[in-house]
Amino acid sequence: MRVTVLGAGVVGLTTAVRLLEAGAGVRVVTAAPIEATTSWITAGIWFPTHVGPPGRVAVWGRRTFEVLSAQARAGVPGAVVRESLALYPEPPGRPDWTASVGPVRAASPAELPPGYRHGLRFAVPQAEMPLYQPWLLRQVTELGGEIVTQHVADLAELAGAGVDAVVNCPGLGARELVADQSVYPVRGQIVRVRNPGLTMSVRDEFHPAGRAYVHPRSSDCILGGTLDEHQWDTTPDPVTAESIIARCTEIVPALAGAEVIDTIAGLRPGRPEVRLEEGAPGPGGVRIVHNYGHGGAGITLSWGCAEDVAALLRLRSPVCRRGSWDSNRGSGWRWTTRRRAGRSPTRPAAWK
Question: Residue 196 and residue 257: Cα distance in Å, rounded?
């Protein structure tokens, strides 16, 4: 099967990897380099934010948790398991997302910042996207996939001769590309600061001044943030930036005086529910599968959704099984690629 995947964010690239593992010939089409995608500027922490439906999100999130955790153990670039603290104004019980996480316990008083009485301690995977997304891109090409830069105004442009299926992973672009008016922007503003030595992710989703989260990375920390629905303006607001720094310093006092690197605003692809389904066929009967609308949880759901796409296309290969690990490749499946002697993984002749 020859498949074109539209989109080179984390959803498109993980989908391409799973399809390649299962034996498909894959071409990834992207309008811009990976550095221009929403995925690039995210903190990359596993947490189901602003996304539905709950049942499917739980399944996709749990599977992605497993894959990212295994990649962290194998030393995949950018993949780590991050100790975390979630803060609450009242006893939280066990929120739904904890079912996908390993051990979860109540935070001790000594672990809580001043003014807080309730919190949960746990560990979740994190993908530092400026390291992880290039790794994903390399997996696509090393498995025999092709990356093409092309602006696409209609999916019919991708349904040409020799293409059996198109997988549509355009993020917010789905609003115009397939006229899905249920897709809307969710503006998120963040501040990047030099990491003063932090290793724990801390969040307060209920802070009275707005969401507060601190996600350390190798050399910086992502401070956030906002969830501004139906806002298209990506110009950072200095007042919002000051508020983000203030409330993040409140939950992590060690941030006081940290050097600000920059302030960024991006647009998450909001939708009432993720759309992962096969749609009407394209020209010539080309199969069209949609995989978009992940809100603030693209990384959190990526591998689970990618495997569902492969299943929809009946490409779950017997040589690509869950539960087996090859550290040279770094996915949760066994990577077995058919090769000709002395040659790279095969690519459909029509695409050479």
Answer: 9
Query: Cβ neighbours of residue 272 under 8 Å, at least 6 residues apart?
Result: 52, 182, 293
DSSP type of residue 153: S
Distance CA 89, CA 214 (A): 18
Parallel, antiparallel, or unpaired: how do β-strands 220-224 and 146-149 relate? unpaired
What confidence tier does 331 reach under pLDDT thresholds 50, 70, 90? very low
β-bridge partners, 201: 84
Q: Are strands 165-168 and 287-292 parallel, antiparallel or unpaired?
A: parallel
d(CA 213, CA 225): 7
Identical fold between 2-88+124-181+271-351 and 184-270: no
In the block, tokens 């990047």 appear at 192
Contact 226, 211 (CB under 8 A): yes
Its CATH class, for the domain covering 184-270, is: alpha beta
CB contact set of 208 (below 8 Å; sequence gap of 6+): none
- Residue 108 is classified by DSSP as P
> Looking at domain 2-88+124-181+271-351, does it have CATH number 3.40.50.2300?
no
CA distance linking residue 165 with residue 145, whole number of Å? 15
Start-to-end CA distance of the chain, whole Å, equals 15
The highest-confidence range among 231-235, 324-328, 335-339, by mean pLDDT, is: 231-235
Q: What is the pLDDT of residues 16-74, one digit of tens each?
A: 999 999 999 999 999 999 999 999 999 999 999 999 999 999 999 999 999 999 999 99
- Peptide bond connecting 225 to the previous residue in cis, omega within 30 degrees of 0: yes
Domain ranges of the chain: 2-88+124-181+271-351, 184-270
In this predicted model, what pLDDT tens digit does every residue of 175-202 receive, in sequence order?
Answer: 999 999 999 999 999 999 999 999 999 9
